[in-house]
Amino acid sequence: MAKKAKSVKDSNNQVVATNRRARHNYAILETFEAGVALMGTEVKSLREGQASLADAFATVDDGEIWLRNLHIPEYHHGTWTNHAPRRNRKLLLHRRQIDTLVGRIRDGNLTLVPLSLYFTGGKVKVELALARGKQAHDKRQDIARRDAEREITREMGRRAKGMT
């Protein structure tokens, strides 16, 4: 069985970018932590806190998992060795994890979505989610449920203060 990713909120992790729309557009089933194969100028640009996961997604090609559409801007002190901002980047996972992900993606109409990009112990990691796309009515139900919970906590606060 694949190992679950550690919490990104860990104290020694420096979060570079998060994909806030992913939790709105997808139902997250399971998360994984994967390394990312990067060039030197990409790491320097990430250390400056520049990256965008807005349109990023992961695909499986020939038994390897690739992160596509991750935007890491060019390093401003870079020379002719600078990287292309939207190049495909290889994700580093164990063979067993890749095999289970490939099987679950094929069987269950699922997709791989990056949730966040962060540093752990000097290495760049990405939190990947095995996710199922939400329909429009599912999104509306989630919004309604959040609004109801917010209203309940607001009312409980009022009652605790004796305002009602």
TrEMBL record:
Compartments where found: Cytoplasm
Chief location of this protein within or outside the cell: cytoplasm
Gene Ontology CC: cytosol
Lyase keyword on record: no
Entry's Gene Ontology molecular function annotations: RNA binding
Ranges for region Disordered: 139-164
A Pfam family that the UniProt record links to this protein: SmpB
Transmembrane segments: none
Matching CDD domains: SmpB (cd09294)
GO BP field: trans-translation; trans-translation-dependent protein tagging
Record keyword Hydrolase present: no
Biased composition (Basic and acidic residues): 139-158
Signal peptide interval: none
Keywords for the protein's UniProt record, in alphabetical order: Cytoplasm, RNA-binding
InterPro entries named in the record: SmpB, SsrA-bd_prot, SsrA-bd_prot_CS
HAMAP family named in the record: SmpB
Function according to Swiss-Prot or TrEMBL: Required for rescue of stalled ribosomes mediated by trans-translation. Binds to transfer-messenger RNA (tmRNA), required for stable association of tmRNA with ribosomes. tmRNA and SmpB together mimic tRNA shape, replacing the anticodon stem-loop with SmpB. tmRNA is encoded by the ssrA gene; the 2 termini fold to resemble tRNA(Ala) and it encodes a 'tag peptide', a short internal open reading frame. During trans-translation Ala-aminoacylated tmRNA acts like a tRNA, entering the A-site of stalled ribosomes, displacing the stalled mRNA.
Family (UniProt): Belongs to the SmpB family.
NCBIfam families hit by this protein: PRK05422.1, smpB
Name the UniProt record assigns to this protein: SsrA-binding protein
Species of the source: Mycolicibacterium poriferae
